[in-house]
Amino acid sequence: MDVLHEVSVMIWLVMIFAFALNAAERYIAVRRPSRISSSKYGGTADKANDGNINAIFKRGSCPHNGDSLKPWWAVDLESERLVLSVHIYNRVDVPSQLHDLLLGLKDTWPTNKGSTLVATDAMCGTLVGPQRSARLMIQCEKNAVGRYLVIQNDGRSALTLCEVKVFGVHRALEKLSDVRVGLKDTWPTNNGSTLIAMDAMCGKRD
């Protein structure tokens, strides 16, 4: 294998690896199957993850629950994921409705029988309030792993999530951490740290 070919192969490997790092953390809930505990005013579950961030309810892009205790919205991520953060676009015409939220992950669809999120579920975080911000971000706790993300109001308030963006990684990429990508003038060796300060760095994932 000549030197030019070796360099070409190494560059392609770096590009592929960098693409994998970039794709690891992304919006993983858009247009996936979703459900809501009950709905009215035409506010169906799919409107919370249709990719439309319009936050005015009458424009038809926000779900709305019926009159149920501890209403919830859930999305099927279609495989087990490590969820890193959840971004919620709040209804701008009645922003104070968004409060006392629990966010967690389950292995099955939630039901309307009692409390939806239980102690054995992987919790992502909470959101108190009332909230008046147009966009809210919940940084998930460590080990927030599961297939079904559930957002539940811990009372009887309306649940109008005008868009929910979920960022996370597939379990296959969960251990892709503390990784550095760079270019060297020679083949790497197993003697100590392979990439050093004088090498050209491409990127890093913590």
TrEMBL record:
Domain Fucolectin tachylectin-4 pentraxin-1 span(s) in chain numbering: 25-170
BP terms from Gene Ontology: regulation of cellular defense response; regulation of complement activation, lectin pathway
GO molecular function: fucose binding; metal ion binding
PANTHER family noted in UniProt: F5_8 TYPE C DOMAIN-CONTAINING PROTEIN, FTP DOMAIN-CONTAINING PROTEIN
Regions crossing the membrane: 6-24
Keyword field contains Lyase: no
InterPro entries: BG_Antigen-Binding_Lectin, FTP1, Galactose-bd-like_sf
Protein known as: Fucolectin tachylectin-4 pentraxin-1 domain-containing protein
Function of the molecule: Acts as a defensive agent. Recognizes blood group fucosylated oligosaccharides including A, B, H and Lewis B-type antigens. Does not recognize Lewis A antigen and has low affinity for monovalent haptens.
Keywords: Calcium, Disulfide bond, Lectin, Membrane, Metal-binding, Transmembrane, Transmembrane helix
Provenance organism: Ridgeia piscesae (Tubeworm)
Oligomeric and partner information: Homotrimer.
Gene3D superfamilies: Galactose-binding domain-like
Family per similarity comment: Belongs to the fucolectin family.
Transmembrane helix recorded as keyword: yes
